[in-house]
Write a structure and sequence with these properties.
Elements: H1 2-11, E1 16-20, H2 21-26, H3 28-37, H4 47-51, E2 65-69, H5 73-84
Parallel strand pairs: 1-2
Length: 87
């Protein structure tokens, strides 16, 4: 929470908050708890969208867009390997 708050201050606000990777992608409860604590930036989650890990989980009433983006570490590693060997 401290890191998100600090980055929000440095950036002068947020337009979008994206959850990714294992826990961020698969824990609706954690996403809800984090957004509840970030009330000062105005995230409002759609409970149904959050429960099904939709790509957009915020409501139209939310002051920022909140999303879920699947991580694809294997693809990133393969891409870096291909670039390293000149493929």
């Amino acid at each position: 929470m401290r890191e998100i708050g600090a980055l929000t201050a440095v950036l002068g606000g947020l337009d979008m908050l994206v959850f990714t990777a294992g826990i961020g992608e698969h824990s609706a409860e954690l996403r809800q708890r984090i957004c509840d604590e970030l009330g000062f930036i105005g995230p409002v989650l759609d409970a149904e969208a959050n429960a099904r890990n939709a790509s957009r989980i915020s409501t139209d009433a939310s002051r920022i867009v909140v999303g879920v983006e699947p991580a694809n570490e294997e693809w990133v590693a393969a891409r870096h390997a291909a670039l390293a060997v000149g493929a």
